[in-house]
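re: ur question from yesterday

yeah so i grabbed the chain u mentioned. its 128 aa long if i counted rite. heres the sequnce exactly as i have it in my notes:
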Amino acid sequence: MVWVRAHAGIEGNSRVDWFAKKATQLGEPLEVKIPYSDVIGTYKQKAIANWQKIYLSGEHAHVSDLKLWKPEDDMEEEGDEQHEEELILAEERLAAEEEEEGAEEADVDALLAMGRVRRKPAYFKDYI
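ran it thru and got these structure tokens back, copy pasting raw so excuse formatting
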């Protein structure tokens, strides 16, 4: 047990404070059993604080794989044909909206006829 001066300046408590100080100095040390959950909680908080300190320091930070990305890179990969079609359709749709205040399904049909788009995206009806 450790004595902490807690009654300083409070009238009437100085005598109680004196007895508390004497109790820490006399006899055998008092062992108070602390619940396991309190001990675990305390160490868990310390571990989290330590981890946060290390994390914020950036001391152990590293870059494992850094690659510059360009939109063309995605287009070159196999299976991105649908993505390319969607981009073309979006560009055409924006152009049509600027001219006519809204895209028509006929615009998409025209793109299909020109070969710019191979098929209509499944979600096209959501945009009309």
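noticed a couple things. The helical segments are 14-25, 36-57, 71-76, 81-100, 105-114. also The chain has a mean pLDDT of 70.
anyway ttyl
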